[in-house]
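Lab notebook page, bench 4
Experiment: in silico fold of construct C2
Operator: M.H.
Input chain length: 124 residues
Purpose: comparison with the prior construct
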Amino acid sequence: QVQLVESGGGSVQAGGSLRLSCAASGYTYTTRCMGWFRQTPGKEREGVATICTGGGRTYYADSVKGRFTISQDNAENTVTVYLQMNSLKPEDTAMYHCAAGWYVSLSPDEYTYWGQGTQVTVSS
């Protein structure tokens, strides 16, 4: 099992910045990629960014390219993934979830472990 705990959400005005963190613990060696996803009520979960070990490859949704940056720190027994979000827009408002899986993808179906989420609200 892999446990994921997100933090860093909050309320900001449009144009502002937030940095989300996701602390992963447990059998993290069973996963290779970690991603950030977001969801608003009534809509499907959307892949935002993903990062994979073995080179640190990163992938972004078109809607966040140039504004969001995903990064990862590996320490003994803990992996932390960050999502730096700049130039935030009201349409970025959502519950943001961290996830861990094996295959590089922005599809939620490819991820096995999920955190509870952290709310991001961007006001105009």
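Observations: The chain has a mean pLDDT of 93. DSSP finds no helices and eleven strands in the chain.
Next step: discuss at group meeting.
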